[in-house]
Specification:
The chain is about 55% helix and about 15% strand. By secondary structure, the protein is of the alpha/beta class. It folds into two domains: about 160 residues, Rossmann fold; about 90 residues, ProC C-terminal domain-like fold. Strands 3-2-1-4-5-6-7-8 form an eight-stranded mixed sheet, sandwiched between helices. Strand 5, helix 5 and strand 6 form a beta-alpha-beta unit. The protein is elongated.
Length: about 280
């Protein structure tokens, strides 16, 4: 992968995280990476820090690319693809991290039989701990999936799913860090309420969540088993659990994931309807 030319269209938080992961992992030479964005200050910073190529015009960035990563907002993806269509190299691989746009629609907007891999990383890519799901478009090859996996493994873990599940992935792990940020904030506030200092409360909340996640991952035990390890008879944990069940924390989280999943499915609908009309 070292000699492949990679263009990243859109250098927002996710695009930048991918660029940093690629460079810092040593998987691709910086001179073979090009980023485009409308913000000149962002491009100047990336060029200075990562020593990559930058372009203010999307068409210039993709001109010689072997892989084009689409990292723009869903609301402008159709315009970006129409702009890129005449400039895309014939055999380049398109990797999209745009929520709500199926591979078939991307193929159509990009001009026909394009190799497309769809991915949904999350914002934890910024600290190399993203959970990313990838799926294969009709024209994509197994080798394309391997390449996509290597790219996203520079920023965390990668899971392959069927495309029909990508909106669910967006609702769960793509949006998921937001749920955890709110939980951390709430736990910190609770700690302050019962007498802890803000810094102490936040540090304890963060480490508690990191530790609990690592226990599930490393032990392979079901969360119910681990929950029962903590909830001793008549103790603090079982009383806290009773309070959570009364206020419906589980149902709230399930509703949030379902709502985000539904919204992801809605994002590409207007463009798909235009395609079929």
């Amino acid at each position: 992968m070292k000699d492949l030319r990679i263009a990243v269209i859109g250098a927002g938080n996710m695009g930048q995280a991918l660029l940093e992961g690629l460079v810092e992992s040593g998987q691709v030479r910086p001179s073979r990476i090009c980023a485009s964005d409308r913000r000149k200050d962002r491009l100047t910073d990336l060029k200075k820090r990562l020593r990559i190529c930058t372009e203010s015009r999307n068409t210039a960035a993709v001109k010689k690319a072997d892989i084009v990563v689409l990292a723009v907002k869903p609301q402008i993806l159709d315009k970006v693809l129409i702009e890129l269509k005449p400039a895309l190299p014939t055999d380049c691989l398109l990797i999209s991290i745009v929520a709500g746009f199926p591979t078939g629609l991307i193929e159509h907007l990009a001009g026909g039989k394009r190799r497309v891999v769809r991915a949904m990383p999350n914002i934890a890519a910024m600290v190399r701990m993203a959970a990313t799901a990838i799926c294969q478009g009709k024209q994509a090859r197994k080798a394309d999936m391997k390449l996509a996996r290597r790219i996203f493994e520079t920023c965390g873990t990668v899971t392959e799913v069927d495309e029909s599940l990508m909106d669910a992935v967006t609702g769960l792990s793509g949006t998921g860090p937001m749920y955890i940020f709110i939980i951390i904030e709430a736990l910190s506030d609770a700690g302050v309420r019962v007498g802890l200092g803000r810094e102490q409360a936040t540090q304890l909340a963060i480490q508690t969540i990191l530790g609990a996640g690592e226990m599930v991952r490393s032990t392979g035990r079901h969360p119910i088993y681990l929950k029962d390890m903590v909830t001793s008879p008549g103790g603090t944990a079982i009383n806290a659990l009773y309070s959570l069940e009364k206020t419906g924390l589980r149902a709230d989280l399930m509703d949030a994931v379902e709502t985000a999943t539904r919204r992801s499915a809605e994002l590409g609908k207007p463009y798909a309807e235009n395609k079929n009309s």
